[in-house]
Amino acid sequence: MSTPRPLAGAIAALAAISLVATACGSDDTSEDTSNDANAGTTVDAGSAASGSDAGPDVDSVTIYSGRNEDLIQPILDQFTEATGIDVNVKYGDSADLALLIDEESAADNVQADVFLSQSPGSLGFLEQNERLATLPDETLALVDESVRDDEGKWIGFSGRQRVLVYNTELVDESELPTSVFDLTDPEWSGRIGVAPSNGSFQDFVTAMRATEGDEVTMEWLEGLAANDPVSYPKNSAIVAAVGRGEVDVGLVNHYYNYRALEEDPTQPSANHHFPNDDPGAVLIVTGAAILDGTDRPSVAAQLIEFLLSPEGQQYFAAETFEYPLAIGEPPPANLPPLDFAAVGVVAFEDLAGGLEQTRQMIADAGLQG
Amino acid sequence: MPTVTTTGAAAMSGVWDRRISPVARHLVPIAIAVVFSGPAAFVLWRTFRLGALSESLDEIIDPLWRTIQLAVLVSATAAVIGTGLAWLTTRTDLPGRRFWRVVLILPLVLPSFVGAAAFIAGLAPGGIIHDALESIGIDAPRRFRGLGAAWLVLTAFTYPYVLLPVTARFANLPANLDESARMLGLSSTATFLRVTLPQLRPAILGGSLLVFLYTVSDFGAVQLLGYDTLTRVVYATRQTNRALSFAAASVVLILALAVVALERSQRGAAQPDRRATVRPMRPIRLGWRAMPALLACTVVAGIGLVVPVASLGTWAQRGLAEGRIGFGELIDPTISTASVSVIAAVVAVGVVLPVAIATTRRPSPSSQAAAVAVIGGFAIPGLVLALALAVLTLNTPALSRWYQTLPVLIGAYVIHFGSQALASSESAVRAVPANLRESGRLLEPRRGRRWFHVDLPLMRPGLVAGGGLVMLATLKELPATLLLSPIGFSTLATEIWASYEEGFYAATGLASLVLIMLSALLTWALVLRRSDVIRS
Amino acid sequence: MASTPHTPQVATRHAAEVALDGVTVSYDGVEAVSDVSLVVPGGSITALLGPSGCGKTSLLRAIAGLERPTAGTVTVGDRPVSGPGTWVHPERRHVGMVFQDGALFPHLTVAQNVDFGLRAAGRHGRRLGRSERTDRVRDALELVDLAGLGDRLPDTLSGGQQQRVALARSLAPQPAVLLLDEPFSALDATLRVQVRAEVADILREVEVTTVFVTHDQDEAFVLGDRVAVLHEGRIEQVGTPDDLYRRPATPWVAGFVGEANFVQGLLGAALADDGGTEHGGDAPPTGHAATLLGSVPVSLHERSDAETPMPPEEAPHTEIAAPAENPTADEAAAISVLVRPEHVSLHPGRCALVTNVEYYGHDVRYELELKDGSTLAARTTSSHLYARGDRVCVRYEGEMAEAWPA
């Protein structure tokens, strides 16, 4: 007892000192930087593009990322390599980070320059609360207008299509529905996996409301609910459930199946794409925004432009199995081409005001959890 | 014994009281209470400001009812299992009971969402439960969801909250109380019910309370298992309907505080701990009952430890074999996790100890309020607590420069988990006999030295046990770590979450196994070797 | 206490005899009690006396059923309760027990503690009505002189009061046998004497067969009708206190039950032949021994058990060499004679030196150094006082002394 105690105490004390020192150190650094940086908050597009104002205040950029570290860090590292600008990232759930940004902004103490959101709803939430700065026109011009905000507050940098994932041992290709509306057919009773509380499902339903109207959407939701679908918390859980045969088919984003097959190539699951003009084939965009109150708007824009550069776009196509959104970038080899004119895109302005309404409709239809 | 009990009241005015002014005696617990109740106050204030509590009642009432059902079932079951296992491993001749004493507390180290995910995977074809059931001719259920599933999973990972304090209580319980009852004509069963159980009651209640609070504020397990509780309302509406989200969080909080207050009123006056000095009890011979007892321990450890470890191991092994994952990336998170957990544990014990001294030696409304405030910190869903602390830090001038630094993160851990050290600290304080404190006073006039040489060594086992619980909780904490940590700081829990969220199961498995091993190692090195739990 | 009114309600149902035959109790292969046989007559108070670790508590717990003997049988009344193929659980033996610290249930009031066994008794025998139980609780508390404290919690009572509640609790169900495990050792010295006297009165009043464990010879002698002395798991001797004190079976017992001088002596051969006439057929031979205290009448035991040649450390004893010149050296046998200090009388003279004086009021204890350098303890009345440094002569003044071959 007497021998190990001083040792353990010393280790704990050392750890405490080093941690506190680290904490103070990092705290001081960020404070110094922010003191130095008294630039305005409006975005200077020209300087952003050229990076000519690079000085002590712009040698780093801070991101709150709702996109997973494994799926974004490599391209951020490439950005640092290319520009010499350090990237600091706080990873978390998109919705949680949006809430945190909202509170930081309300306290006039915004920590990040850029917000990368996995969920369009979180961008809409911040736009609605006026926490986003306007993007430079040059940046906005890099993508089709269908995948950016009309007000210029956010921009899509990669896209995920809604698909029907199915178990290849339990469902024959010929049986697969041609439209998401066919899933209300009694033949699918008890065979469908859904994630009603997940952002991407809610985005998809919101998009359906925008194109088909509330009445048709409600009818479809009730029909789906009548087919006794199995609820899961998230897309990956649905894909896993389809893989083990718990349900036959599931409504998910397209890339989860590629990821699952990477984990376990023997899993008997495959994606079924609905036609481009079907509401079931809606495109969900991963978006970026510059935060209101940042003192490094130009570097922030520089980073977003890098994500939309050919280098960045091909990273998403090759590594995360997503659709590139920059004009002129080809889709991944194994994905059907995307017709931007035909495919439905989740409309952020609808989402911002209408997500709560969507949630209510999902609940009213009897889809739980 | 007579010296302790008869001088009990008089001894309350011992060392502590004479040197510390009455104002300070009340101020310290009150100050601690204010800090601990900050997040709760924020949640209630925000709910009030959003003005949605009454409008939200319709949407809250069903989830509230489901939450109560689940929390009552889980805490009652955990109480039975935890008490039963404590009895088996301390009072009987169960084969290998030292081994079981360690193994049976390990399920506590798993985050509940990992446990739930491992269960779901275990039930799938190829999973350990599926195959085990198949081998005895039972079809594994295809769907593992709802109340039953949440009940099973949460119980399997929380019963150690009851097991630990009850084991400690058994160690201090004079065996001759049981023997007296037998001599007065009670069977062994009746003795357990009428004599042993009332003596264990504070420990069982305290442990079950932690289980209850854990369950009402858990999100990870209920989300994965599709059981719609209040925390799911909090999460599902946090962006789309913030009023409802906060209203649901407030209801969780009010429910929890009501239960905390009920428990403290039911606990009864604290009795001085009487060390069993007479003679150690001879282990009860189980005889033929040893087999069913061993089976029970095996099933509990199997559900709480073997199933998750096997599932996680399958995931990790697949990734390791293909070289997609490695231990290298986990070194930094492991060091970070261990450091913040140990520091949080030490700070939590230091902060909670004055409250424990106040409630134990001089119970008063202010000390009871401080205790409720400390326990209430555990009743707030992690995400809400993290946001609350973010807002409080950002808007307090003296603190705002510490936003997203480790001191604030550790403060969050302490506020969230300090309650887990309270019960153990209270028994630690009771372990210092009043007459000893007085004799110490005569022998060593310097208060500081006396504190270090008399009080602290006597309190050590209890304080170490309490710190251990805080450490285990911090090791797996997620929401506060994600939001309040400095940028670039990651722990094993955040690694597990990030990989699981995107379906990178191999990385989830590996990081979880590292977390389990780290927890076991730290628990063994810092807690078990130093407490009464292992030694009989 | 003796004047406390009590009703016949608090009496034994029958004063059962307790019989132990060849009882062995082991812990993890180590024998705490070895092959003990003992009969406790119904209604008697028997003390199990011995130093700590002698097995006395294990023996008591074997009677209670709290330990299971590895061999031998235990009979309570005419019912075997423990033996090969027989095991009666403690709660079915109709045996009461008072523990060292009382072991009162801290969560129950005094009255609820006393009532505890009455409620339980209903499970195994005649169920008692509520009013009958209330009466019995009141009677039991009156018996121990604690009427009126029924609503208190045990922790608010003094140690002596707690022990009396424990006694009342054990007696209330009218046990056939009452067992007490070091019942007074947790009390301080003055309280112990007082509570002991009170308990003795109560036990005699209720006439319950009582077995109690103590390491204190005074306690055993004051309370016990009979005393069984245990040493290293075996019974050395059973007898009345007077038997043990005056006619200890072994030097060890002699030393344990009182202060003992062992004086070396030489036994005259001719006189040794007189043996047998005085004590009957089985009695050891008697004779006279020549010692430094003069001629001492002795009753000679056989060589004491090899396992216990020496008296225990806690009982001071002295060995005194035989006189250097021996008139009948040819036939003489060297023996060790037990001389209690009170059997040494002091006279004016110059044979010994007073090295220490302890004045107790009613008597005085002297330590003396004899000519040959050995020391001797003596107790005399305080009528004539010697001082340290005085020179005196010593003489044996007592009845037949016990002696063992040296």
Output the structural class of chain A. Answer: alpha/beta
Helix content of chain A: 40-55%
What form of chain B results from the Cα inertia axes? globular
Poorly predicted regions of chain B: 1-18
Oligomer: heterotrimer
β-strand percent of chain B reads under 5%
Q: Give, in order, the helices and strands of chain B.
A: HHHHHHHHHHHHHHHHHHHHHHHHHHH
**Global structural class of chain B:** mainly alpha
End-to-end Cα distance of chain B, whole Å, is: 22 Å
The average pLDDT score of chain A comes to: 81
Pick out the low-confidence regions of chain A: 1-56
Overall strand count of chain A? 10
Query: Quick one: biggest sheet of chain B?
Result: none
Task: Considering residues with a beta carbon less than 8 A from a beta carbon on another chain, report the largest interface and each chain's count.
Answer: A-B, 63 and 64 residues
Please tell me how large the radius of gyration of chain A is: 23 Å
Mean pLDDT of chain B: 83
Structure description:
The complex is a heterotrimer of chains A (369), B (536) and C (406). Chain A is of the alpha/beta class and 369 residues long. Chain A has 13 helices and 10 strands. In chain A, strands 1, 2, 3, 4, 5, 6, 7, 8, 9 and 10 form a 10-stranded mixed beta sheet that branches. In chain A, helix 3 (69-83) links the parallel strand 1 and strand 2 (86-91). Residues 1-56 of chain A have low confidence and may be disordered. With 536 residues, chain B is mainly alpha-helical. Chain B is globular, with a radius of gyration of 23 Å. Chain C has helices at 56-64, 110-124, 130-143, 159-171, 189-206, 217-223, 241-246, 251-256, 269-272; strands at residues 18-27, 30-40, 45-49, 71-76, 79-83, 86-87, 95-98, 177-181, 209-214, 226-231, 234-239, 261-267, 286-291, 294-300, 319-320, 333-339, 344-359, 363-369, 375-381, 391-396, 401-405. In chain C, strand 10 (226-231) and strand 11 form a beta hairpin. Chains in contact: A-B, B-C. The B-C interface holds B 1-2, 5-6, 8, 174, 176-177, 179-188, 190, 195, 198-199, 271-272, 278-279, 282 and C 27, 57, 64-67, 89-92, 95-97, 99-101, 103-107, 116-117, 120-121, 123-124, 155-156, 158-159, 162, 169-170, 173, 179, 186-187.
